[in-house]
Write the C-alpha cells for this entry.
Amino acid sequence: MVRLMGRSGERSPRRPSGPLARYRRDADRPRRGEDRGRRRAAALRSALSGRSVAAQVFAMNVVIVLLLVVAAAVALVLQGRHDSEVEARNRSVSVAATFANSPGVPEALRAPDPTAILQPRAEATREATGVDFVVVMNTDGIRYTHPRPDRIGKQFVGDIAPALAGETVTEEIEGTIGPLVQAVVPVKAADGTVVGLVSAGITTENVGGVADRQLPLVLTAAAAGLALATGGTALVSRRLLRQTHGLGPHEMTRMYEHHDAVLHSVREGVLIVGGEGQLLLANDEAQRLLDLPPDAEGRHVLRLGLPDDTAELLASGRVATDEVHLVKDRLLAVNQRPTDVRGGPAGSVATLRDSTELRALSGRADTARERLDILYAAGVAIGTSLDVGRTAEELAELAVPRFADYVSVDLFDTVLAGGQPEGVTPLRRTALSGVREEVPLYPVGRQLRFVASSPQGRSLDTGRPVLEPRLGEAAGWQAQDLERSAQVVEYGVHSLITVPLRAGSLMLGVVSFWRSEKAEPFDEDELALAEELVARAAVSIDNARRYTREHSMAVTLQRSLLPRRMPDQNALDVAYRYLPAQAGVGGDWFDVLPLSGARVALVVGDVVGHGLHAAATMGRLRTAVHNFASLDLPPDELLGLLDELVNRIDQDEAADDSSAPVTGATCLYAIYDPVSSTCVMARAGHPPPALIRPDGGVEFPEVPAGPPLGLGGLPFETTELRLAEGSRLVLYTDGLVEDREHDIDVGLEHLRQALETAGESPEETCRTVLDARLPDRPGDDIALLVARTRALGPDRVAEWQVPNDPAAVGEVRAEVTRRLADWGLDELAFTTELILSELVTNAIRYGGETVQVRVLHDRSLICEVFDSSSTSPHLRYAAMTDEGGRGLFLVAQLAERWGTRYTPAGKVIWAEQPVP
C-alpha cells in the first residue's frame, strides 16, 4: 500500500522515483487542467460522502465547534435572563424605597385626597426610573395611585402583610397589567408607625426585554465563531483534500497501480514538456509516432531530431488545436495545452493523433458532402416557377461553378410551348450559364440539330448520359461543327458530360456540362452526379411544361369565351382592355350588347377564382346575360334572373363532388339610350363605375351596391343618369383597384387621379389607366371598358300620337312616308308602310287607348309602336281558312329583326330594317 506524506515530510521507502514520479508529483493535476472543475466537483462529492480522511476530519471538527458554539450561546442567554431578573428586583426595591422615604409622603397619606397629591409624583417617578408602575396604597391595600386611573381605589394585588410589619417584600405575581416582578415597601411616620405602602414593579415582558435585545448579539457572535471555526477547518480539509484528490487509501493505491497501464496503452501519444523545454514524459504511442530515442525523457525537445515546426511547437508551449504536422510519412494532429493554469507547474501537455488515413477519408467525405449539397440545392432552387425557360436557367445557374464551368440546356421547341415532342423536331438552346460570357458555345435562342455522332445526339438516341473526358480527341463531337469545335477547344474547354432530360418515357431535351478551369477531366463519379442532378431538374421542367400546356388551354378557352370584336352600333364609342393574371386565367368578362331602339347595354362581370372552372363559369354567365339581354329586360330584372341562375348552378354542382360551386360572382349592367341620353344601371356586388364629364371632371356615381350573385332573396336597385354627349363611362373589375397592400378606397382614389389625366378618346383613357394602375405581376384579372356617349339628334327621330281610330292609320303612313323622303329612304317607304299598318292596327285593336309611333334613323331604320297594354303579341301561322293572324308573320318577313319590350306604361313592338 502506498503511504501518504506526513507532516514531517518523511517519505515511504517504497515510493517510486524518476521521471514518472516527478510526473505524478508535479504534472498530474496540470495534465488534466481542462477537467479541473469536474475533478473538484467529483472530489467534493467524494469528500461529502465521508469516504476520505479529509471528509472525516472536516465533519468531526464542524460537529465539535457547533456543539461549543451552541453551548456558549445557551449559557449566555440563560445568564442574561438571570441578570435581568435580579436587576428588575433591585430596581423595584430601590424605586419603591426611595419614593416611600421621600419627604411629604406620610403627610400626603393623611390628606383628604391623597391621590391628587401622590398620583402626579408617582407617574413622574415611574417615567424617570423606567419601571412599569409606582403604586401608593393605605394599610388596607387600597390604591391611591396607578398608571391606569381606573385601577385607583381598588385592592392591591400582592402580599402586603410583611410590609405592614415593616419589612420589604419582592415577589413575582399576575398583576392587573400582566405578569410582573414587584417590591412593596412600608411608609413610616415620624414615630415609626406604618401609615401606608409603596409598590414599584416591572412586567415580565420588560424584564426579558434586555435579554432578548442581547440575543441577536449573542447569536451573531455564535455564528461568527462557527463561521471562523468552520472556515479554518475547511482550509485544513481542503489542503488535505487536494493532496489526496478526495480518495481513500485503497482508491489511491488502485489508481497508481493502473496509471502506467492506462498511460502507455492509449492509442494517442502523450508528451509532458517542462517549463524549460525538457521532455518529462512520453508514452509508448508518442515514442512510436515520433520515433524518439530511448533516452528522450529529460532531453530538450529541440534536440530530439524532430521536424523544426513540430519541435518549435512543443518547445513554445502555446495552445494548439488539431494542428497537422508532417513527421516523416505520417500526418499528426497535435493538440497542446499549458499546465500552469490556476497555479499548476510550468510546462505543457501535448497529445498526438495519427490522421493519415483520416485525411484521406475526410477528403472523400468532403467530396460526397459537396455533391449532396448540390443535390439539396437543386431540390430548393430548381422549380421555383412554372416557367419552362426559367426552370432551365435555374438548372444552369445552380451547376456553375459548383460542378461545371459552363452549362447549356437544349429543349425541344414543342416542350417550350407546353407540348410533347413528336418525331424529329429541332431543339433550341434555352439556357446557358458560365464563369465567363465570351465562351464560343451556341448562344441562347439558337435552333440546333445535333448529328448522331455528337455526345448530345448519342444521349438523345440512347437515353443515356455520355462522358467525353477529352474533347480535343473526340471526333464525333467535332463533326457537329468543325469551326466552332476548334474555337471551343482553343478557348480551354476540355471535358464534357451530356445527360438527356427525361420525364418518364418522354424526352424533353439534353443538358451539357463543360469544364475548362479545372485541369482534371470529368470522371465516372461526376457523371453519376450529373445524371442525378438532371433527373431532379427534369421533374421540375416537366411540371412547368404541363402547366404551360394547361395554362395555354385555359387561356384559349377564356379567349374564346370573351368577345373577339365590338358589335357595330352608333350610340357609344368603345375601347377595352383585358389582362389575365400572372397566376392563371380568371373569370372576368365584359360585353357591349346592342339593344332595340338604338340602345346599347354595357356589361362587366367577375367570377371569383382562377383556372378552367372560373373561365367556364364566366362563359356560362356571359351566355346567360346575352340571352336575358335579348328579352330587353331592365338592369334590375336581368340581375335578378342572373342571381337565380347562379343559385341553380351552385345547387347542381353541389350534388356533383367533382365540381366546385361558384365561390362568388359580381356584375354591373348598364343600358344607354342615345335618344334620351340617359343611362340606367344596376350592380351586384361590383365596384362602382366612374364617369368622366366632357369638361374632364371625374366622379363615381352613386349606384346602389346590391349583393353578389348567388346569395339570393335580395332585390337589386337601378339608378338613372343623364349623360351629356361626350361623357365617358368607365367600367372595370376589382383587379384594377384592389390588391393585398391597399384598400379599395385607395385604389379608387388612384383611379380618379389617372382618369383626370387621361386623353379625350376611350383608347387614350384605357392606355393612361393601365400605365398608372397596372402592377408588375397582377394577381387578378383586369377588365376595363371605356364608352364615350353619342346622342341621336332630333333630326333622326320622328314621333306621332295616334288616335284610337283605325282611320288614323292612313295618316300615320303618309307622315312616315314624308319623313322617309326627307331622310332619303324612299326605297323603304313601301315596306315601312306595311309594317306600321300592321303594328298600329294591332295596337289600336288590342293595345288600349294610348298609341304612339316613333321612327329612328340610325344604322338601321327602326319603327316602334307604343301602347298601354302589357299583353305580348305572338307570332303564329294562320290557316288557309283564317281571316286574320298574318300581321306579325308579315312583319317578321319584311323586317330584319323585330321584338317586344315592356315599359312601366305598357309595351313597345319594334321592327328594324337595314338602311341601303
Summary: The chain is about 40% helix and 25% strand. The mean pLDDT is 82. The first strand starts at residue 133 and ends at 137. The radius of gyration is 58 Å.
